[in-house]
């Protein structure tokens, strides 16, 4: 047996992130993986979105953002004609996204784990089943039995046995077309900071090609290929040459795969939570795989920590399923629509796609809407405010105006970033007309969870933060430990803020 408070199953980037975030809350973590050790591999999941970089920075893995290649422009082509391009809006010190190989990301996360005494990693531990009771979960690794109060499963898409032992279904569909992916090293002037997406190029007629720049003069190329096509070395060389011409290049890695769209029926089963590919699979166009799995890990980590410390009400752990399952459903809807556009299955769908591409209308061409944080507008933890409605998804690449449920803008402050002040518990931000000392006095008596109260004017020393956020002088903003806005309360008093905190804690027993 062991003394872990949480057992994390799976040492991929989602499991690694979860372990680091749990340890940040002071939780003892045991990570299990069926492999004999960290394997080598190609680029795999390469494109990491700003809000995931923010999570990794909080977990002690800020080097992902530092080492990654920050591309800024996305170009879309139809055959040999550029249809349009778009760029990200910049928000704060972190880049909108970076490209970096999954193998290097895992190395950086491993290095952070090695410096964390609260985390133990055990390789060669295949989990063959789970059983649970009112006080904990027993993890079966063959004849070995391990036990902890909670288990977080990040074991990837092939965790059929674990899902079955929990009674969790994993329904969905698989797409017939294959995709060939290659990592190459080459000198491609002008391509170093641009993502390029080609519909129906002459060198891959009827299908698509996606090209991403990566660090160190390397590029990741994805070709959509026929279901029965088995590419040879000659085929791969020919395909690369069709794109880069006669320039010298080095082939670093290649593989083929198919896309799947599947979602778990439940992401919480008692004391067991599911995260990452174990809970949802989506097509990678838009980079919504790992960029959804890491927020799963963060959402699970702070809620498990609060449950273990007795800071939360009974609804907090269930809100993990409510919030992250809704996020998975949204990603599934968006990526499935993209795949229907990329791989039309009917004559009508093919005719519509051709008409859209020939028309070149940006708003109708679907090459994958880039990953965004899921906004918990309808979460049971969010206190709605009619004066601050959620305005819907902003245009591609744009930022979302603050509202309850939306993630807090990551604005620069003296000595850091705004979100760096949100990671140690709940944060109450107050306008100039609110008496901070009164809020501290009242909230300190009714809330046991970690909570800080700060005036907006004192946060940046200039008084401009409220203006940049659009916060009123009599408002209180309640920010969750994952930087999402739980409430924006006009004419705020300590009692109304305490009620919003109680709601955000799943019904705190101490209020």
UniProtKB/TrEMBL annotation:
The keyword Oxidoreductase applies. Residues 3-331 form the FAD-binding domain. SUPFAM superfamilies: FAD/NAD(P)-binding domain (SSF51905). InterPro entries: FAD-bd, FAD/NAD-bd_sf, RIFMO-like. GO terms for molecular function: 3-(3-hydroxyphenyl)propionate hydroxylase activity; FAD binding; pentachlorophenol monooxygenase activity. It holds the Pfam family FAD_binding_3. Its EC number is 1.14.13.127, 1.14.13.50. It is an enzyme of class 1 (oxidoreductase). Keywords: FAD, Flavoprotein, Monooxygenase, Oxidoreductase. Its cofactor is FAD. This is Pentachlorophenol monooxygenase/3-(3-hydroxy-phenyl)propionate hydroxylase. It comes from Nonomuraea rubra.
